[in-house]
Amino acid sequence: xxxxxxxxxxxxxxxxxxxxxxxxxxxxxxxxxxxxxxxxxxxxxxxxxxxxxxxxxxxxxxxxxxxxxxxxxxxxxxxxxxxxxxxxxxxxxxxxxxxxxxxxxxxxxxxxxxxxxxxxxxxxxxxxxxxxxxxxxxxxxxxxxxxxxxxxxxxxxxxxxxxxxxxxxxxxxxxxxxxxxxxxxxxxxxxxxxxxxxxxxxxxxxxxxxxxxxxxxxxxxxxxxxxxxxxxxxxxxxxxxxxxxxxxxxxxxxxxxxxxxxxxxxxxxxxxxxxxxxxxxxxxxxxxxxxxxxxxxxxxxxxxxxxxxxxxxxxxxxxxxxxx
Length: 324
Ligand SMILES: Cc1cc2nc3c(=O)[nH]c(=O)nc-3n(C[C@H](O)[C@H](O)[C@H](O)COP(=O)(O)O)c2cc1C
Known about the structure:
The protein is an alpha+beta fold. It has a domain at 4-111 and 310-320: 3-Layer(aba) Sandwich (NADH Oxidase). The protein has helices at 4-11, 51-69, 142-160, 165-171, 196-205, 208-216, 220-223, 227-232, 246-262, 277-285, and strands at 23-29, 32-37, 73-80, 91-97, 128-131, 134-139, 173-174, 187-188, 235-241, 266-269, 293-301. Strands 5-6-9-11-10 form a five-stranded antiparallel β-sheet. Helix 2 crosses helix 9 (246-262). The radius of gyration is 19 Å and the shape is globular. It binds flavin mononucleotide (FMN). Flavin mononucleotide binds at residues 15-19, 52, 55-56, 59, 112-113, 115, 191, 268-272, 312.
């Protein structure tokens, strides 16, 4: 039977928006795992309706299920709530046994967010990857990548100018390795693929007062553009699923990302596209898959053998345990 320590370590392999790592696990008995929310780690501006929190919960549940399968164990959802209440578990999971090893188990430690430019392209022959619970449709035409990069830049800029959004994002950014939480949580500049000079530049430009000043001069949008990174990708991997439930979508998101990793495709989500109706409609129009909801869109491409995965910024497994 997996130990508490092993399960907590598996939980650190999961993903969360802005890497806030909002969940804590409790083990009231050998057969039950409870998932609590740390309310200090919510994103009231970026995630006001808790959509990202629910998707992150789905991703955590899927991560645990996959990691535990490697030891012949499994989990079933007894209850998973759509909302979080302080001091109450958001999910109750039951431990099961006799589960075969998940085909994606080996990808858990290989997956990571790559946010830099791609230096080479990979030709993607099959434009559709389907599996249990999700579909990935690849958009590979340069014109599609260009269109989506422009829409993304517009949406990104619109969000950055919403009251409180930039300040909240900035509070989760780690611009220097001397930041006490550099290797613990949030987005450090290594995970954002920024050089030392770029990191310094970003720490200045993204300060609210300076960003507003640059916005008045009409310079801010170009400075935060991700068009270069998006257009250098080999494809946009659009993850779709049939369920309308965000927790199911989070599970599909994690499985699809691990599937991309298995295909040696790396990259990062462009979640803001799913937070903006016109952007979502435009991506939807480009797809052949109909009747499924877009969970997320990742820009993906290959990385050279010499590329070294950055050290993941994560809380320790001890910090993942729920403390009253
Ligand atoms: C619901 C959700 C939304 C996310 N949105 C974005 C995004 O818009 N851009 C991005 O670069 N990463 C996004 N991510 C990825 C996380 O930032 C990333 O997984 C986390 O920082 C952990 O880092 P790692 O992927 O390198 O392990 C998202 C993750 C989740 C679960």
